[in-house]
Description:
The protein is α+β, with helices and mostly antiparallel strands. It has seven helices and eleven strands.
Amino acid sequence: MESFIHELVKKTETKYQLNHSDMLADYNRENETAKGYNGRQILELLQNCDDEGSKEVLIKLNKELNTISISNTGTPFSENGYRSLFISNLSSKTSKKRYIGNKGLGFRSIITWSDSIEVISNGISLFYSRQRRKENFERLVSVERQAQIRAEENLKNTVHPIPFLTLPKVSQVDQGDFTTTIRIHYLDKFLRDIEKQISEITSETTLFLRHIEQIRFEGINGKASIKCNRQVLPDDKKSFAPRSLLTFSDSEWEIFEEEHALPIEFSDTDREEE
């Protein structure tokens, strides 16, 4: 997998060196995607964990180091997953679309918070940072061309218009008990927003997920773990709808699922699926 990642890095570097327009287009798409999901970063990361079939998630906040990490026990990053990091509007999720967040693009919303992001999976660390973005831009684009791009795009001299989640530092790591960890070194001004989003995670949050049975919290005062027992029930005889029972320490929910084909006027005409 590491050789595959290095090949992605090499191809991306070559693409950006040969065509700065591709670099700018990817940069703009990444910014638009990040803005579109702003305000629901934690939910998007939880959704990603659930999409990978994880039953357990650990959310860890370290205020001394300015880090928040989300770790899961689901399927590790695949080649498609890594490829989606390098292409700002590409999703790794190609299966039938059934649940919220299935585009997988919300992951980029964490860029808004971040001074750096580390993606740990398959025993490999991909490290991204604002400093690394600056170094990549200055390495791949001549000083003269940098000035031209900023003038054409009406950008400040402090802006480095190359995607954040591209050209990472790649290294091998010991990732511990979890298959994937996303570690964010956040900027001070976003701590309140992070704490607010964590506080809004409740038992009911798991009603919109499919696999997660436990969410543990560390470094968050007064935030107790959420445990959910999921049980598939026989079809209801009246509605014939698939249903499941979710049991928490203080409540019990019966979930009914009903499906119908989307009317043709709302369908994606480029795809075969209904």
